[in-house]
Amino acid sequence: MKGHQFVMASVALLAGLPSVFAVAAARTETRECKLKYTKKETALPQKQVEECLSVFANRKADVEHVEIIAGTSLGGQHKANMKKSTARIDNLRKKLTADFPNARINSLNVGPSRELGDVIRLSIIALSPETKAAMAEESNSVTTEERRLHTTAGAGSETGEPQIEPQKEAGELPRVSVEPVVKAETIRENFGRVAARLGQDSNRDLDESYPVIGLEVAYVRPNTGVQNLRTEMGATAASMSKGDKLMKQASAHALLGAGFNMNGIIVGARALGGGVWDEENKWRDDFGGEGRLGFENKTLSVFAGVGRTQKTSRFGLDVGILL
Fold first, then answer.
1. Residue 40 in contact with residue 84, Cβ under 8 Å?
2. Quick count: other Cβ atoms within 10 Å of Cβ 50?
3. pTM for the whole structure
4. Is residue 7 helix, strand or coil?
5. Is 74:93 a contact under the CB 8 Å cutoff?
6. Are strands 300-309 and 283-296 parallel, antiparallel or unpaired?
7. Most confident of 73-77, 130-134, 190-194, 316-320
8. Number of separate domains in the chain
9. Cα torsion at 73, 75, 76, 79 (round to 10°)?
10. What is the widest separation between alpha-carbon atoms in the chain?
């Protein structure tokens, strides 16, 4: 076989092979729903559940697997939130067990969550229409073969014994093996922040104002005892200069703060403890604090801060990324 003929034959062979992924995708279909609860509600949201399950005509036969994914609220007492979340999961599991007796039902509680505090995510995996049609066709072919064997069994051979044609392998009905499916979604409540600080600080001893460039690192975590409250700890350092070697200072502070998160708008305050290197390169202790107002999403933060310490009056803008 010539080279180009071999290549053409190989391409034709590959084109005729069935796609394993396409077959697997055709066997099942997934229905995903979000069930929303009020803050204190644990009873089953019947209307939402029925709307989610309405697409399944034969609930006992069609559904293979169900995943329940829930979380707890950020605010309030953690034990009370866990108890509320567990009650919601149990009530939903009872309903699904009754509707899908042949399905495997798994549940997962991810703990304190901004997105799943009062929402339960439901993933239902069922046989696709194509798979159900194939199963029905296979079942009919097996029944026809059994009837044919029953009919031919009465015909005798020369020895007088009945002859039965060998049964063709009908094979098992198509089965769909479904592994537990949990989307690899990481819900972060504790995170780090790295920010650049630009500002204008005033030296209270010299009554001089300095442009400031600085860096800040912090670790943020929610407070489970108070609704929407979160705390932070970290460190900040800055260089204050007017471009003159004689009028140059630097500062370094540890920080400890708290703030309220109102749908991405943060209002808070923090204490600062550290020191300042003055124009003579001498270290002077410096303690104080500042108030902060800003905006934060999953990747970016912007804060404005105004404060006062023993050595400086502070005003600046922080722009950072979340890690």
1. yes
2. 12
3. 0.46
4. helix
5. no
6. antiparallel
7. 316-320
8. 2
9. 40
10. 124
pLDDT band at 7 (very low <50, low <70, confident <90, very high): very low
- Which structural domain range is residue 249 located in? 191-322
Q: Which of 127, 151, 177 is the last residue of a domain?
A: 127
pLDDT tens sequence across 36-61 = 888 788 888 888 888 888 877 665 66
Domain end residue (candidates: 127, 149, 181): 127
Buried b (16+ CB within 10 A) or exposed e, 238-255: bebeeeeeeebbbbebeb
Contact between 27 and 128 under an 8 Å Cβ cutoff? The reply is: yes
Q: Who's near 229: CB < 8 A, 6+ residues apart?
A: 75, 222, 223, 258, 259, 260, 261
- Specify if 44 maps to a domain: yes
Alpha carbon dihedral 51, 52, 58, 59, in 10-degree steps, equals -120
Q: Comparing C-alpha atoms, which of 130, 143, 59 is closest to residue 95?
A: 59
CA 211, 212, 215 angle in degrees (round to 5)? 165
What is the Cα–Cα distance from 73 to 121, expressed in whole angstroms? 15
Q: What is the pLDDT of residues 129-152, one digit of tens each?
A: 555 555 556 655 555 555 665 555
